[in-house]
Amino acid sequence: MRVAVFGAGGVGAYFGARLAEAGADLAVIARGAHLDAIRANGLRVDSVLGDMLVEPAIASASTADVGPVDVVLLGVKTWQVPEAMQSLGPLLGPETLVVPLQNGVVCGGFCFIVAPGHVRHIGGVTFIKFGELDGHKSPRVTALCDAFVRARVDAAVPDDIHMALWEKFLLVVPFGGVGAVTRAPLGVLLTPPTRELLARGMREIEAIARARGVALPVDIVERTLAILDGVNPSGTSSLQRDIAAGKRSELDEWTGAVVRLGARAGVPTPLHDFLYAALLPQERRARGELKF
């Protein structure tokens, strides 16, 4: 199986390395010092589930150097997707499966770059889910799931990928927004009074999903909090880390999306309205739109 990781940041590097370790032919599309380090020393992933050092078959800044592959793991930030799409063409054959990892959709695990060519995975509920949008179990989806299982990755093809997307959205967005405002790790967020803020944010997203006809489990909020209770308490979201570092983040695609979707569905989202308004000045500063 030929696999290309386009944007070898945290989760893209982790899942790509796992597949390579299990025998996949890995190509990495990266830039700058990260690319230089991977070319010189390989892709290093320190993981609580076992460290890896893999030598990609190809490491390049250009997709033209790679050619058609079986799978593309798209690991860029959401706001970078339109630009990335302009470059994907050489990777795409008639049956190429593109798996978007934006916002950790639909995957889990705390992964982040610690140095060029070096990614750290500190745990969390580490999994990946993917599927065809129409729900059928295609040969390409089944083949990738089998490859992940051989790579010792918790992988699944949900019966309803749209529900899986909403379940992950409900988990990650309140975690990211509340974490970014409080600047606290997950273990702190899960204690009162911030635990109730997380639950309130999840209920807002649940209400939007139900208004859009998505039949989430009736106990989805309780289930999601229970999942987070079992995660590394030192964990933070990529949104929180980017905002704290003064970088452009996915605020519009996370918290802002809840505000917009709630307005369209006629569902009040007071917590996300506040989180978005509170974090937007820092986001605009990171984009160069404000100075302070």
Overview of this protein structure:
The protein contains 11 helices and 10 strands. The chain has 292 residues and is of the alpha/beta class. The protein has a 5-stranded parallel sheet, with helices on one face. Strands 3, 4, 8, 9 and 10 form a 5-stranded mixed sheet that branches. α5 packs parallel to α9.
Detail the topology: elements first, then pairings:
Elements: E1 2-6, H1 10-21, E2 25-29, H2 32-41, E3 43-47, E4 52-54, E5 58-60, E6 71-74, H3 81-85, E7 97-100, E8 107-115, E9 118-129, H4 139-150, E10 155-156, H5 161-182, H6 186-189, H7 194-211, H8 220-229, H9 238-244, H10 255-265, H11 270-286
Parallel strand pairs: 1-2, 1-6, 2-5, 3-9, 6-7, 9-10
Antiparallel strand pairs: 3-4, 8-9
Helix pairs in contact: 5-7, 5-9, 5-11, 7-8, 7-10, 10-11
In short:
The protein has 292 residues and is α/β, with parallel strands linked by helices. It has helices spanning 10-21, 32-41, 81-85, 139-150, 161-182, 186-189, 194-211, 220-229, 238-244, 255-265, 270-286, and strands spanning 2-6, 25-29, 43-47, 52-54, 58-60, 71-74, 97-100, 107-115, 118-129, 155-156.
